[in-house]
Amino acid sequence: MEEFRADRRRLIGAGMVAAAAGMAAACSSGAESKGSAAASWTPTADDQDSWLDKPGTRHRMAFDSVSGDGGAEALGYANNFIHVNQADYAINPD
């Protein structure tokens, strides 16, 4: 019985690996066909967002949750957000 479970798990695992490889191949082949269009795309700037480009401009963010477990996750997300801004963009949360 144990051999059957191990074989079944091995088969399912191999199927998942094959499916992931197939999805990766499909995604990469789609990106290659659109390569020049994807490389030249830039987002449009809205007039409402122009204040973000002014030096010294500050804004606030809110991290909300609906449960105690979500509260811990919101704190973790906020910590990650602050850490990445400090480490990668040299922005201090004064």
Question: What is the overall number of helices?
Answer: 3
Structural class determined from secondary elements = mainly alpha
Ends apart, CA distance between termini: 62 Å
Beta content: under 5%
Q: What overall geometry do the principal axes of the alpha carbons give?
A: flat
Instruction: Please give the domain count.
Output: 2
Number of extended strands:
0
Largest sheet features? none
Mean pLDDT figure? 76
What would you report as the Rg, rounded to the nearest angstrom?
A: 23 Å
Query: Residue share in helices?
Result: 55-70%
Low-confidence segments, given as residue ranges, are: none
Order of secondary-structure elements: HHH
Give an overview of the whole structure.
With 94 residues, the chain is mostly helical. The protein contains three helices and no strands. It has helices at 2-33, 35-40, 68-89. The N and C termini lie far apart (62 Å).
Short description:
Helices cover 64% and strands 0% of the residues. The chain has 94 residues and is mainly alpha-helical.
Key features?
2 domains; flat; single chain
Topology (SSEs and partners):
Layout: H1 2-33, H2 35-40, H3 68-89
